Amino acid sequence: MKKSLSFLVLIAATMAFAQRPDPLTFVDPLIGTGPEGHTFPGATAPFGMVQLSPDTQIRPFKQSYKWAAGYRYEDTTILGFSHTHFSGAGHSDLGDFLIMPVSGESVPLEPGDLEKTRPGYRSRYSHTSERAEPGYYSVFLQDSGVQAELTASERVGEHRYTFAQGTKRHLLLDLRSSIYNYPGKVLWSRIRVRKDGTVTGMRETRGWASGRQLFFAIRFSAAMSGHALYNKEEDPPTYHGFKTPGTLPEDTQSVEGRGLEAVFDFAPSSAPLIVKVAISPVSEENAIANMDAETPGFDFDGIRAKTQQMWREELSRVEFSASPSMEKSLYTALYHAMMAPSTSMDVNGEYRGPDNQVHRAEGFRFVSSLSLWDTYRAEQPLMTLVQPERRTNDLVRSMIASQQESPFGILPVWQFEGLETWCMIGYHSAPIISDAYMKGIRGYDAGTALDAMVASATYAPYGNLAAYMKLGYVPADHDDEAASKTVEYAFDDWTIARMAKAMGKKTVADTFEKRAAFWRNSFNAVDGFLEPRMENGDYRKPFDPAKAGAGSGFTEGNAWQYSWYQPQDEQGLIELLGGNQRLIAKLDAMFDQKVDPAMYANVEDISGMIGQYIHGNEPSHHLAYLFMYAGAPLKTQVRLKQIVDSQYKPSPDGLVGNDDLGQMSAWLVFTSLGFYPVAPGSNEYVLGRPFVDRAVLHLPNGNLLTIKSVNLTDAQGFLKDVVLNGRSLNRSYVTHEELMNGGELKFIFSNEKEAEWSRRILHAPYSDSAPQ
Q1: Residue 509 half-sphere exposure toward CB, CA atoms < 13 A
Q2: Contact between 658 and 37 (Cβ < 8 Å)
Q3: Strands 273-280 vs 210-220: parallel, antiparallel or unpaired
C-alpha cells in the first residue's frame, strides 16, 4: 500500500526520538473530561487555532456550566463535532461549525435530546469504541453506523468518516449549534456552495465576546451528489450587521440568516469520506488560503502523523520518570498546558484585534485565548522556562499589539480570538511581561511594553482603579470583589515596579513600588485576615472569613484563601501576623478546618477542598509553599503530598477543578519537579519536594537540567538535603538563572521528619520587606 511522502518523512523524523519512550503513549486526553475539569478529548495541534472535538451537550450558561468544553465523559450521546473549544475554562463559548455524519434515507434537522429518547441527528456511543490521543480522536457512532476519526493541523480540522457498505451518506452542518447556546446568540450567518464544490461561510455571535466573527471553508474528498440549504428561523429579523458585499456569482448558491443548516449528500461507497474544515477570523478567502497552505490534499494519515510529531517534539521538552500513574498524569498535564495561548491569525499574518478590525502581525505569531487571571501563576512561567523564544515572545508581542488596538488602550484581561470579555480581575498581562523581561526574554520593544503596563494600571474606569489609586485600596461599598482586587492589583503593581527599576525608569518604579504595598491597606492585623474595607476606612462588619460568593468582597474564594495573597511580600505578612510560628499555625488551621462542602454548593469554582484550602481554584495554588518562608519545609512537603495524592489522578475525573487553560496542569508539573514560581517576576522558584524519580528538562538554550530524587519512598518522604550541581543549598529557593544553566538538582530523602536540611536553611525566598 502506497504511503504519502509526507507520512514517510514524518516516520523518519520520529525515529530521532526512538532512544527514549514516546511521550504520546503516556498522554490521555480524556483526563479532566468528567466532573469539573472541563477539558475536551478531541484533536488539536500544539497551541492550535482549531480544536476539533465531539460535543455532547450545549445549553445556556445557567444550565450548562459543566459543559464548558462541549463534552462531558458521563454523557452517552454525541451531538456532533465542532471546531473550536476552550480547554478547562470556567466560562465558555465557541463550538463553531458543528458537523455530524448521518446515514440512511433522510436527515433529521434537529439534534434530539441528550438521552436519545426522541429522534434526532445525535448518536449514541460507547467509551469502549472511543480513542483519544494528541492530535487524533476516533469513536463509533452507533445510530448511524459510522466510524468517525478526527485530526487537525494548526488551522484546519480534518474528519474521516467510514460508512457501512451500501448506505447513503450525508453530512449535516449546523450553524445554530454553539457551546453555551441560547436564542439570539447567532447574530448572522452564511453558507455558500461554490462551483468547485468548496463550501464557505461565516457566523457572527454575541456570546462571551460580543460581535465575534469566524469564517470557514470546507472541502470533501468525494463529489457531492446533492445538497440542501436551510434557514430554520421561523421569522428572520432584519439584521444590519455583517452582510454579503455586492452580488454573488450566478454559479454560487448561498443562504443567509440566523438559523442555518446544510445537508450534503454523497453516493454510497466503502471508501472513507474525508472532510477538511479550515477556519479564519478574517475572511472566507483566508480560510481557503489556510487550507491550501496546511492541508493541500486529502492525506488524513499524513496530517495526523505531522501533528503528532509536533506534539512529540513539544512533550519531549520535559522527560518524566515516575510511577506509571504519575507519568500518565504528568505527560497529560504538560499536554494540557500546551493548548493555549492559541494561534489566532491566518497564514498570511492577518488577525482580528480587540477593535474588531483586521490587522497583520509582522514578525510574530498573534495568539489569544488568554485566561490571564489563571495562567500568569504557573502555566505561562512553565512556557517561559521550556519555550521562551517562541511562546513567551509571541504572547508578549500579541498583548502589546492588543493594547495598541484596544479602544480602551489597555492590555488584555481575558481575551479570545482578539476580543475582550472583561472576565476576572487584575491586569495580569503585567506580571507575564515583567517575568519575561526579568528572565532576559526580550524579543519585543521593552519601552512600549512598559508604557502599555502603566496605561493598564492607571486606566481609572477599569475595576475601580480610580478609588484604588486614591485610597490605596478598593472600597467594599463600591465593589463586591474589593478585597481580592486590592491584593491582586498590588501584586501586578510590584511586577511593573520590578521591570521599571531594571530598565532604569526610577519615577515609574517608585510609583508602583509604593502601590505594591497597598495590600497592607486591606489587611486587618487585629483579626489576622484580609477583609473588605469601606470608603470611610472602616472594615466591613460583620465579617466571616469563610464567606464566599456574592457580598463576600472576594473573587471565587474567601478570606481564608486570599489573606495569603501578597507573593511579593510574604515576609511582610509574617510580621503582621506576629512571626513565623503564627503564620505556620494559621496555615495549618486553614488546611485542617472541618468544612461542609455543601456550604459552597452555590459558589462558583469552590472545589478540591482540604479544609479551607481550595485546590480547584487558583488563589490557593501557592499556599503550601508559604511554609518555606517561615522556615518550615517539612510542612510544605507534607501538604504538597496531601494535595497531589488527593487532587490528581489519571482518569476522566482526575482534575478536581477547571484546568483553566493549563494552570491546574502546570501546577502539577512544577510541583512534581520540586519547585514552584510563587512570585512571577522575582526570578525565583520556591523549593518543595519532587514527585518523580527523575526528570530531564531540555532547555531552550541547549542545556539539560536533570532532577533526581534519591531514596524517595513512601516511608522516606522527608528531605535530608537539596544539592544543586554538587553544592548543598542553604536556602529554600533556586533562581531562574541556575535552572537555565542546567546540570543536576538532586533531592535526597530520608525517614527523619526533622531532617538536617530544614535546620540548615538560612535564606527564605524574595520578599519586599526582607533585606535583599
Answers
A1: 10
A2: yes
A3: antiparallel
Q: 744 pairs with which residues across the strands?
A: 706
pLDDT band at residue 559 using 50, 70 and 90 as cut-offs:
very high
Nearest to 765 by CA among 640, 666, 591, 636: 636
**Confidence band of 3 (pLDDT split at 50, 70, 90):** very low
Buried b (16+ CB within 10 A) or exposed e, 722-732: bbbeeeebebb
Q: How many CB atoms lie within 10 A of CB 69?
A: 29
CA dist 539 and 61 (Å) reads 34
Question: For residues 664 and 649, what is the distance between their CA atoms, to the nearest angstrom?
Answer: 12
> Of 747, 736, 743, 762, which is closest to residue 678 (Cα–Cα)?
736
Q: Among candidates 120, 251, 241, which has minimal Cα distance to 190?
A: 241
If 0-12 CB within 10 Å is exposed, 13-18 middle and 19+ buried, where does residue 715 land?
A: exposed
CA distance 241 to 257: 11
For residue 647, the one-letter residue type is Q
Determine contact, residues 464/476, Cβ cutoff 8 Å.
Answer: no
The bridge status of strand 529-530 relative to strand 727-728 is unpaired
Q: How far apart (Å, rounded) are the C-alpha atoms in residues 465 and 141?
A: 53
Q: Per-residue pLDDT tens for 457-499?
A: 999 999 999 999 999 999 999 999 999 999 999 999 999 999 9
Give how far Cα 359 sits from Cα of 348, 466, 492, 528, Å. 11, 32, 28, 50
d(CA 166, CA 169): 9
Q: Are 681 and 494 in contact (CB under 8 A)?
A: yes
Domains and CATH numbers, the chain: 5-314 (2.70.98.10), 319-345+633-772 (3.30.2080.10), 347-462 (1.20.1050.60)
Q: Residue 230's CB: how many other CB atoms inside 10 A?
A: 18
**Considering the chain, what percentage of its residues have pLDDT values greater than 70?**
94
CA–CA distance, 596 with 130 (Å, rounded to integer): 37
Query: Which three three-digit cell numbers place residue 64?
Result: 450548562
User: How many of the other CB atoms lie within 10 Å of CB of 535?
Assistant: 15
Q: Helices (DSSP H) in 406-543: which residue ranges?
A: 429-438, 446-457, 465-471, 482-502, 506-516
Question: CB of 102 within 8 A of CB of 171?
Answer: yes
Task: Read off the pTM.
Answer: 0.95
- On whether the CB atoms of residues 425 and 371 are closer than 8 A, the answer is no
- As a whole number of Å, the CA-based R_g of the chain is 26
Q: Give 394-439 pLDDT, tens digit per residue.
A: 999 999 999 999 999 999 999 999 999 999 999 999 999 999 999 9
Query: Could you tell me how many residues make up the chain?
Result: 772
Is residue 19 predicted with pLDDT exceeding 70?
A: no
Class of residue 710 by CB neighbours under 10 A (exposed 0-12, middle 13-18, buried 19+): middle
341 cis-preceded (ω within 30 degrees of 0) = yes
Nearest CA-CA partner of 367 in 333, 336, 334, 390? 390
Tell me the per-residue pLDDT of 100-134, one tens digit each, with 9 for 90 and over.
999 999 999 999 988 877 789 999 999 999 999 99
Model confidence at 224, in pLDDT bands (50, 70, 90)? very high
Looking at residue 341, its amino acid is P
Determine contact, residues 178/258, Cβ cutoff 8 Å.
Answer: no
